[in-house]
Amino acid sequence: MHDPNSPSWADMTDLTEIMTADELTELGTGDIAYIKPIKARDLREMFPDVPPLHDNMTLYALLNADGTPILLADSREAAVANAFEADLEMASLH
């Protein structure tokens, strides 16, 4: 039976012929970024060299499409400005 909510190209066997897992992983890398608010206490995982900060301080990480950290800013506006300067397309996460 035909499902109108599932396009014909969405069949997993056909999809793997269009794009490999490695190609999908690289999609948007270097072109697309997002901003994630992060508490100072959680920074060590992403930014191992960060100096000690107050645990409750909120900072903003600009991350590449694949989650790779680009920079850390003290305001969302500063992170957006850096993304703009680097010609990165911003993705909205919900």
The secondary-structure class comes to alpha+beta
Portion of residues in helices? 25-40%
What percentage of the residues does DSSP assign to strands (E)?
15-25%
Count of individual helical segments: 4
Work out the number of β strands: 4
Distance between the ends: 33 Å
Using the alpha-carbon principal axes, give the shape.
elongated
The helix-strand sequence is HHEHEEHE
Unreliable stretches covering 5 or more consecutive residues = none
Average the pLDDT over all residues and give the rounded result. 79
Q: Compute the gyration radius: what is it?
A: 18 Å
In terms of quaternary structure, the protein is single chain
Strand order of the largest sheet: 3-2-1-4
Largest sheet: 4 strands, mixed
Describe the structure.
- The protein is α+β, with helices and mostly antiparallel strands and 94 residues long.
- The protein is 29% helix and 23% strand.
- The protein has a 4-stranded mixed sheet, covered by helices on one side.
- The two termini are 33 Å apart.
- The model has no long low-confidence stretch (mean pLDDT 79).
